[in-house]
Amino acid sequence: MATFAPGSYIFKEGDLSQEAYRIIKGRVELTATADEKPVILAQIGEGDIFGEMAMIDERPRSASAQCLEQTECEIMAPQDFQSTLLTQPERSIPYLSALFERLRSVTNRLHHEINHNTQIQEATLENVPPHDPTPISSSSSRLSKTHMETETIQETAVSTVILTPGTPICSSKMPDGYEAIQLAKFPFCIGRKVHSAPHQKEIFSANDFEIADTLPFQISRNHCSIEREGDRYFVRDRGSTLGTIVNGVPLGVKSERLTHDLLPGTNELVLGSKHSPYIFQIDLL
User: What is the value of pTM for the model shown?
Assistant: First the structure.
C-alpha cells in the first residue's frame, strides 16, 4: 500500500516502471501528451485498476497518473502478481478483469480496422473511392487516431455528465435510490448483470452500471462505455452483440464505427437494437 498527496504523480508518461495500481481510496487522472499538451484520458476512483499493461509489455508508460485528491493505492509488481495468482487468486481478480477489458478493446479495434482495410482493398480493385467511417484530418492527434473519434468538436465546456433513464423499464433497472447517475469517473462502463454464485466475483466483466436484462438479451455482458478524451466525451461500443445507438448512429463491430461523440446538451443512448426498450439520456451540462 502507498498513499499519495493531492497533485502528486504516481508515474509520468515515459517512465520505465512495471507496477500496476488499484485505488483503495481517492481519485486519479490519467493524461497523455498530444500536440505538446496534456489530454485527459480517464478519471478513475475507488476500486479501479490502472497501469496494468506495464506488468506485461515492459514498455515506457504511455500516460501519466496524477492524484486529484489524497489517494491510497494497492501496488502490484509483476513478481507479486504471479505469486498472487497461485496463493491468493481472489486478490488477482480485479487485475485480470482490467487486463481482459484491455484485450477486449484492442480486439474490437483490430476487427474494425481489418474490416475497414478490406473495404479499401475492394474499393481499390473496383476503382471506387472507399468509404472512410472514421475520417481523420492531418491535424488530428495520435490520441484521436487511437480512439477512432469522429470529427465533431465540442465547443462548450462540460462540467457535469448525467445518465438518466428514458423509459419505465430503464427506471426500474436503476440502482436503489437513484433516479439518475452523475458520472464521476471515465470511462464509465455499462453492461448486463451476470448472476453468479454467492460470494463469487465476476472475472470477465468490469462494469460501473450493471443492468439486469432478460432473454432475449438486448444488453451484452460488456456493452458500452462513456469516455472522455480531453474536452471530448463519447460513447464506445465494447463489442456488444446487438450494438449501441447514439443519437441515431449505430455503433459496434458490425457497424461503420465503434465510437460516437456526445454533444453538449441532451443525447440519446440505446443499448441493443433499434427496438430495444433500454433507452437512456446522457446530458452534458
Answer: 0.78
